[in-house]
Predict the structure.
Amino acid sequence: MKNKNPPAFALLKQQFPRAFSKVTPLKIGIHKEFFAILKSIPKPYSIRQCRRALYWYINRKEYLRRIVADNDRIDIDGRPCGKVTKAEEAYAKNQLQLKYCAKYCKHYKEHLKHK
């Protein structure tokens, strides 16, 4: 499931097309809105699978690269609803560095073996 969309992500895109039409930072707490709606409709995936799909989406490199201070965040309907903070940008950059190290840094991999 690393580079491949989880199957439940298709449901998120179908139910919330404006939120997923392009990779844009999502509103903080948007998951509560997503799952409140998803609980009320018939669906082929469990809420847990949908949570995993959302987690996969917001942890993708493409998404993390869009977390830049003062960029707009969007709501469930794709409307701007706030800005990315400098602290959020720093966190996203850190996550990207960790992903890079996990993939490319031999010392990091050796460190993990000894934990």
